[in-house]
Amino acid sequence: MKTSNVLVLILVLLSINASTEWPTHTVCKEDNLEIYYKSCDPQQDFAFSIDRCSDVTTHTFNIRAAMVLRHSIKELYIKVDLIINGKTVFSYSDTLCEPGHSKLIFCGKKKGEHLYYEGPVTLGIKEIPQGDYTVSARLTNEDRVTVACADFTVKNYLDY
């Protein structure tokens, strides 16, 4: 009996390791707005949530995000692309952390530390465009190593 339990455990562990992609997580799904995300970092997933989809259409809304850092953050850069039908139609990049000038409270965190943020985010948009599209976001450090990476799928079937 013990041999069969060990065999089942080995098969379960092999099936978990056989997967090369992280699962798609639901951020929110309300009325005609749905937002999902999937980590595009092959080595790490992370947690991300908002209270309600309808909050995203306001100027500022609250998020929660958590992960364990695989790399230290002295400098942190963000690159965001809006992708429609496989084509990048808009790109945005910014420096979030640099020596002597940090925009975020987790700048300076070390490898292995838990990163948790709960608070407001301002997107700088007044409405979410109608349609299906992808928002690809990548955070890299001073060594150009990926700190976090996600592809967000947005489905909006309602004009706000």
UniProtKB/TrEMBL annotation:
Organism: Anseranas semipalmata
GO terms, biological process: innate immune response; positive regulation of lipopolysaccharide-mediated signaling pathway
UniProt keyword Signal present: yes
Lineage: Eukaryota, Metazoa, Chordata, Craniata, Vertebrata
Matches recorded under InterPro entries: Ig_E-set, LY86, ML_dom
UniProt signal peptide: 1-20
Keyword Signal: yes
Location of the MD-2-related lipid-recognition domain: 37-154
Protein name as annotated: LY86 protein
Alphabetized UniProt keyword annotations: Signal
